[in-house]
Write a structure and sequence with these properties.
- The structure is a single chain.
- With about 170 residues, the chain is mainly α.
- Helix content is about 70%, strand content about 0%.
- It contains 11 helices and no strands.
- Helix 1 packs across helix 2 and helix 5 packs across helix 6.
- The longest helix has 22 residues.
Length: about 170
C-alpha cells in the first residue's frame, strides 16, 4: 500500500482544520480554491514529514496527535461542539505547521514540492507554488504569513532544516 494511502486521513483532517481555522472568502469557488491550496500544502508537508511507507504506516498506527494544541494557539473554543469531532484526532501538528510555512511562502513551497515530489511538482502543486491573484483573494487568511506565524513558527525551523538537507540551496 503506497504511503499516500496511509497519509490520506491526516491530509484530509489537517486540510479541514486549516480551512476552518483560516476561513476562505465567501462563495463556493473561493472555498474550493482555498481548500485546494490547503490540501496541496498539507500533502507536500505530509510527504516531507513521513517520507517512507514505513513512516506513513507508523503514524497511521499510532495516530498523529490531534488538534488540541493548535486550537489553543489559534483561540478556538475547546468547548465548542466542532472541537470534539472525531476527525480532529487525525490532525497532525507538525504537518499543519509545515503547511502553514508553505502557504505563507511560495518560494519555500516550491523547494518543498520539489523535495517531496520531484519533477512533477510544478504541475501537481501549481496552486501552492505559483498562486494566482484569485488564489490569493480566495485564501487571504490562509496565505498571510503574519496570520499564519503562530502556527508556522511551531515547527518551521525543522522544515527548513529538512529542506536544506534534501535540496542544498
Amino acid at each position: 500500500m503506497p504511503a499516500d494511502d496511509f497519509l490520506s486521513p491526516i491530509v484530509a483532517a489537517t486540510t479541514r482544520w486549516l480551512v476552518q481555522a483560516y476561513p476562505p472568502a465567501r462563495g463556493a469557488l473561493q472555498r474550493g480554491l482555498a481548500e485546494a491550496q490547503a490540501r496541496q500544502a498539507v500533502t507536500v508537508a505530509a510527504l516531507l514529514r513521513y517520507p517512507t511507507e514505513l513512516d506513513a504506516e507508523l503514524v497511521a498506527l499510532s495516530g498523529p496527535g490531534g488538534a488540541s494544541r493548535l486550537d489553543w494557539i489559534t483561540g478556538a473554543d475547546a468547548a465548542a461542539p466542532e472541537c470534539t469531532e472525531a476527525w480532529r484526532s487525525w490532525v497532525d501538528e507538525v504537518v499543519t505547521s509545515w503547511a502553514a510555512c508553505l502557504l505563507g511562502s511560495p518560494a519555500l513551497a516550491t523547494r518543498a514540492a520539489a523535495a517531496a515530489h520531484g519533477d512533477t511538482a510544478p504541475v501537481a502543486f501549481r496552486r501552492l507554488t505559483d498562486p494566482t491573484e484569485e488564489d490569493h483573494r480566495s485564501a487571504a487568511l490562509l496565505r498571510h504569513p503574519d496570520v499564519l506565524a503562530p502556527i508556522a513558527d511551531l515547527h518551521g525551523a525543522e522544515l527548513r532544516d529538512r529542506l536544506q538537507a534534501a535540496l542544498p540551496a
